[in-house]
Amino acid sequence: MTDEDKTPRNASAGTWSRLGLGALSGLLAGGAALAVAELTAAALRPQASPVVAVGGAAIDRTPTAVKDWAIRTFGTNDKLVLQLGILAVLTLFALVLGAFAVRRRRTGAAGVLVFGVVGAAAALGRPDSAGVTDAFPSVLGAVAGAVLLYFLVGLLPAPPRQAPAERGEGWDRRRFVIAASAAAAASAGAGVLGRALSGAGGREAVASRENVTLPPPDSPAPAVPRGAQVRVAGVSPFVTPNSDFYRVDTALVVPKVDATAWRLRIHGDGVARERTLTFDDLLRRELIERDITLTCVSNEVGGPYAGNARWIGVRLADLLEECGVRPPSGGGPADQLVARSVDGMTIGSPVEDVMDGRDAMLAVGMNGEPLPFDHGFPVRMLVPGLYGYVSACKWIEDIELTTFDAYDSYWVKRDWAREAPIKTQSRIDTPKPFARPKAGTVMVAGVAWAQHRGIDKVEIRVDDGPWQEATLAAEDSRDTWRQWSYAWQATKGGHNLTVRATDRTGEVQTEKRTRTVPDGASGWHSVVVTVD
Questions:
Q1: In the chain, which end has fewer C-beta atoms inside a 10 angstrom radius, N or C?
Q2: What is the C-alpha separation between 422 and 426, in angstroms, rounded?
Q3: 64 DSSP assignment
Q4: What is the mean pLDDT of residues 328-350?
Q5: What confidence score (pLDDT) does residue 49 get?
Q6: Any residues with CB less than 8 A from the CB of 438 and at least 6 apart, and which?
Q7: Taken in order 343, 345, 351, 352, is the CA torsion positive or negative?
Q8: What are the CA-CA distances from residue 155 to residues 13, 67, 99 (Å)?
Q9: Is 313 exposed, middle or buried (0-12, 13-18, 19+ CB in 10 A)?
């Protein structure tokens, strides 16, 4: 083979080599941009991180159906999946930019600034934005990435037809390896330092939680009655441990709020006396303790997003009455209570329900300890009988009295209903779908709930047979779920088990199957099993 024959192949190999090294340079530049951005965000405000800001913007703009699918598919890992997806897109973008910069060095480096533009716009557009400083992490990160990409590409072998002014210094393998290694090490170091600073930034909040001693409640919850927990393996515990309690929210970074600095403002229509309360103000008030089951509106039929806990807090109605608030039935001008979280979330609750005598509260404790950060420390709101998206504001800092006509809260703007009482529901916990129990007595068991109404009856149907009444466990209160069990004489073969509940008002759980949007799923839960 002549030298002329080898030239095209060598040129082709050289081109691919340059593109590969350019892509690597882009990846290193992207990593540096993120590292610098995260380090800057840790020093200023973790919520200003471009990944967090872009992720939050993506959540806000995601169609309701897609968001609902993500919760069903990924559960409480939906935020992790979103962050990984953002990082994957950024990685691909960085690789393409790096390869492009091999031939268009300045243009490729300038393209990195798109990172900054998108991140800064997302950060400034967040509901909890702290102002122009929230743009700094994305901007500084993008500048660092652009400079690094321009420098690294300048060390690569220039394309044969490239103009001399664009060639840089030519191919310097050793210098490139040293520079790339140094960039990778510096980015890793910046990332570790950023994590450390972020952790340090939350230490005051952690310390404030550790220093909280919950006073004994003035109105303690009655003891859970004997027999509230059925003795059947596989049934959810009557009281859900804090670590197992479901978490569904839009916060990519869990807010770490210092209880000593926390404030709650109550204001708006019909508020004769505005108030601003501290955490200690709440602890000095009369505290109630109640067992209450919470349910997320994203819970599909038979789904896991329901949990029961013992909460301690301040009656919300008492606070509102002290501020001069009257419910609509009493002539008050406001029919909506808008609760605002430190992360910008808004949740609208019917004032009538909050003040009708139920144990609506500002909770400060959960299962005998201060609220975990994941569940709203230092203070969250909850209203028995309403789905969480219209009642259970975590990290609450503001309560405004207004009307439903005047203001649409976060989820209402996204096609969910303004008012959403929890529907009567029941679930089979055991046997699990596609289980293979032995013929004979098989215990079927689960939970049913109709918060603030109570469960009166649970029935089981095997295949298309008649409904059979299950045995109800002891009732704690009408605001908690109720366990049930049924001794099924199972015969060999495939069977379909279906459950339905009747609440204390006499309403039978509807068979009509609906999705979660706009006001919660409905339908009967069933499981298919094969009896051996």
A1: N
A2: 12
A3: H
A4: 96
A5: 86
A6: 490, 531, 532
A7: negative
A8: 18, 45, 14
A9: buried
**Distance between CA atoms of 47 and 90, rounded to whole angstroms?**
19
| Token pair for 176 | 């490139």
pLDDT category of residue 99 using cuts at 50, 70 and 90:
confident
Q: How confident is the model at residue 307 (pLDDT cuts 50, 70, 90)?
A: very high
In 3-state terms, what secondary structure has residue 532?
A: coil
CA distance 381 to 361: 6
Of how many residues is the chain composed? 532
| CA pair distance 31, 112, nearest whole angstrom | 11
Q: Which helix (H) or strand (E) holds 191?
A: helix 173-201
User: Cβ atoms within 10 A of the Cβ of 40, count?
Assistant: 24
C-alpha distances in angstroms, 396 versus 211, 249, 277?
20, 13, 12
Q: What is the pTM of this model?
A: 0.84
In the structure encoding, which two tokens stand for residue 223, read together? 């003891």
Instruction: With CA atoms as reference, report the closest residue to 39 among 261, 193, 184, 199.
Output: 193
pLDDT (tens digit per residue) in 51-76: 888 888 877 777 777 777 777 777 76
Using only C-alpha atoms, the chain has a radius of gyration, in whole angstroms, of 29
Collect all residues with Cβ–Cβ distance below 8 Å to 513 and sequence separation of at least 6: 301, 521, 522, 523, 524
Residue 129, phi-psi category: left (phi > 0), alpha (psi -120 to 50), beta (remainder)? beta
Give the angle subtended at the CA of 381 by the CAs of 211 and 264, to the nearest 5°.
65
Give the 3-state DSSP-derived string for 334-402, with helices as H, strands as E and coil as C.
Answer: CCEEEEEECCCCEEEEEHHHHCCCCCCEEEEEECCEECCHHHCCCCEEECCCECHHHCCCCCEEEEEEE
Q: What number of H helices and E strands is found in the chain?
A: 12, 18
Summarised one tens digit per residue, pLDDT across range 513-528 is 999 999 999 999 999 9
Asked whether the beta carbons of 24 and 94 are under 8 A apart, the reply is: no
Question: What DSSP character marks residue 433?
Answer: T
Please state, in angstroms and rounded to a whole number, the distance separating the CA atoms of residues 309 and 67. 27
Which has the minimum average pLDDT: 163-172, 315-324, 501-510?
Answer: 163-172
User: What number of other Cβ atoms are within 10 A of residue 28's Cβ?
Assistant: 24
253: tokens are 């970074």
Structure tokens at 241: 């441990």
Mean pLDDT across 242-264? 93
- The residues facing 242 across adjacent strands are none
Instruction: Label residue 407 exposed, middle or buried (CB < 10 Å: 0-12, 13-18, 19+).
Output: middle
Confidence tier at 43 by pLDDT (50, 70, 90): confident
Is there a contact between 394 and 375 (Cβ–Cβ < 8 Å)? Answer: yes
Task: Retrieve residue 348's tokens.
Answer: 């609208």
